[in-house]
Design brief:
heterodimer; A: about 425 residues; alpha/beta; 7-stranded mixed sheet; 5-stranded parallel sheet; 9 helices; 29 strands; about 20% helix; B: about 140 residues; 3-stranded antiparallel sheet; 2 helices; about 15% helix; elongated
Chain lengths: ~425, ~140
């Protein structure tokens, strides 16, 4: 067994982990290590070859792979240690990490602090209870993306996409550009899950139809996918008899949701928030276990990588304060409450302090709304208000506020005009 | 000719209609001067400009992969350094299918100049999997 003693261990070398390690390094932390299970750093970014990354961080429209490369180049210029092809097996409350790779065998790492940055996994066919056979050819969108962009394989010739979240839409375009025929995108909800920008540039640009309120009700093909059945759903989500359509295809792409990867967190009894599916965080992004922090998609599914990097930096600031003994031992907390139309907010709680403190909140709305006023209030009344032209669930909101030292905080949409969902449905039928 | 677009500038996503006025209708699309177009449905100036651009000359950036040899992987992600006319995308893709580059590559290296006479250069998005010692594990 290889033994290591580390100050700050970052589990995951994606954008959250890289930003956390770089910030810790910038703050003077000396003994920092990134443990990454893949053969290279970058996390999910190297396969995100499309653009739309870095607008907030660098003011430039970059590709995901370019954004990752920038962090990797910076890391190369530091003494941050990087363990690749290294899988973390277990972490303990005493902050010991057990990991392994084929070069060192089993590694036992005693850490001053741990930053969890494991990202997400994709929801699978089994989890959505996809009916029918289980042939080859039913693949999650992220896996298709990896096959095409990294491994260099086309996993099919004629595809159906289930789910209209951004990954599904991005892959609709990618597959079309590489010569895979995309029959259509099928979405169980009556409104699309991804950004309008992607509906326009990934579907409309290529005349790929979007079928709302539809589901795949049967998969056919014993060894390889031969075809599937789609049906329309009624208002309560039940298939409408007589609407069956059989589609011949050899690839079913599942874009049906991301789940924060918290196996390691659960193993050490980190308290999870059922709304975010990630650890409950305080204002330093520390979890319920002392000295264990979390950042990026493992804490909540973000949509902008710029916010992911920001969360990594917040966690690193907390981790450095922790190893320097600057964080209170058994702090008192107050809650951050979700007000009107807010689905969840991160962090979920804030340490009480003598003075006011600056914090950044990330949240999503439950329903689309126009002319929405986002209001943050505390024990002394309203703290801030900001007007948004429109707010939609696929677009995470960020709010930086200076909160008083004690008392619960509430963030909510106070006034707004409800965005007409019917209008959206009509628009999508026009596609 | 009348066309409707969903604006992507902000989440309001206005549906904006652009129509050519008067005898300008007979001229080929793309040649119409901006003043001859009637734009409606936009809530702001950003939407106005977006719709005009989409009507007269819609442009997109290209992001794809090209074949790479002597690297750890078979594909290298690439990106255009500016937007190109939407109508030329498939032609550029076909040209890129034929390109093979050799590792090592650095982010920003020019893979193809002035692709299909669009004025856009195709650049490497990242270093790809150029063999680089400890930075790409081979164990």
């Amino acid at each position: 067994m290889k033994h290591m003693v580390i100050d700050i261990a970052v589990i995951g070398g994606g954008p959250a982990g890289m930003a956390a390690a770089l910030e810790a390094n910038r703050l003077g932390a000396k003994n920092v290590v990134i443990l990454e299970r893949d053969f290279a750093l970058g996390g999910i970014l190297p396969q995100c070859i499309h653009d739309g990354f870095g607008l907030l961080t660098y003011g430039k429209n970059m590709t995901g792979s370019g954004y990752a490369q920038k962090d990797i180049d910076e890391i190369k210029n530091t003494d941050i240690q990087v363990l690749l092809n290294t899988m973390v097996l277990e972490i303990t409350e005493e902050k010991t990490i057990f990991a392994c790779n084929s070069q060192d065998g089993i590694i036992e790492m005693q850490c001053g602090t741990i930053i969890l940055a494991m990202g997400c996994r994709e929801r699978t066919a089994g989890q959505i209870m996809l009916q029918g056979y289980r042939p080859q050819g039913v693949i999650t969108a992220g896996s298709v993306q990896r096959y095409i962009n990294i491994e260099g394989y086309l996993p099919g010739t004629k595809a159906v996409i289930l789910g209209s979240g951004d990954i599904g839409l991005i892959m609709a375009r990618r597959m079309t550009l590489e010569g895979i025929e995309v029959v259509g995108v099928y979405e169980v909800m009556p409104y699309p899950g991804g950004l309008t920008r992607n509906i326009v540039q990934c579907l409309e640009d290529f005349d790929i139809p979007l079928h709302l309120s539809h589901a795949v009700t049967n998969v056919n093909g014993k060894h390889s996918l031969e075809g599937l059945t789609v049906m329309e759903l009624d208002g309560s989500g039940k298939p409408v008899a007589g609407t069956e359509v059989y589609i011949e295809c050899d690839l079913l792409v599942l874009a049906v949701g991301l789940i924060p990867e918290n196996e390691l967190s659960s193993g050490v009894n980190v308290a999870l928030d059922p709304k975010t599916k990630g650890p409950i965080l305080d204002d330093d992004y520390m979890t319920s276990v002392s000295g264990i922090f979390a950042a990026g998609n493992v804490s909540v599914v973000f949509d902008l990588v710029d916010y992911v990097s920001q969360s990594g930096r917040i966690a690193a600031n907390g981790a450095v304060k922790y190893i320097n003994g600057q964080l209170p031992e058994n702090p008192e907390f107050r809650e951050v409450k979700c007000g009107g139309n807010i689905n969840f907010v991160v962090p979920q709680r804030i340490k009480c302090s003598k003075e006011d403190k600056d914090i950044t909140l990330f949240m999503r709305v439950k329903e689309p709304a126009q002319k929405a006023v986002l209001v943050c209030s505390g024990i002394n009344g309203e703290i801030s208000r900001k007007r948004h032209n429109a707010v939609v669930p696929p677009e995470m909101l960020s709010c930086s506020v200076c909160v008083p030292g004690s008392g619960d905080i509430e963030i909510g949409i106070k006034e707004s005009v409800k965005k007409s969902v019917e209008k959206d449905i009509v628009e999508c039928k026009e596609l | 000719m009348k066309k409707t677009f969903t604006c992507i500038v902000c989440p309001v996503s206005c549906r904006i209609t652009v129509e050519a006025q008067g005898d300008e209708q007979n001229r080929e699309q793309g040649e119409k001067p901006v003043e001859a177009l009637q734009v409606s449905g936009n809530a702001c100036k950003n939407g106005y400009h977006y719709a005009i651009n989409e009507y007269t000359l819609p442009k997109r950036s290209i992001t794809t992969t090209v074949a790479v040899k002597q690297g750890l992987l078979r594909r290298l992600p690439v990106v255009s350094d500016r937007e190109i006319p939407k109508s030329k995308i498939m032609e550029c893709m076909k040209a890129l299918y034929t390109i093979e580059v050799a590792a090592p590559i650095k982010r920003g290296d020019i893979i193809a100049e002035n692709i299909c006479n669009t004025g856009a250069n195709i650049l490497a998005s990242s270093d790809g999997a150029s063999p680089d010692g400890a930075w790409h594990a081979t164990y």
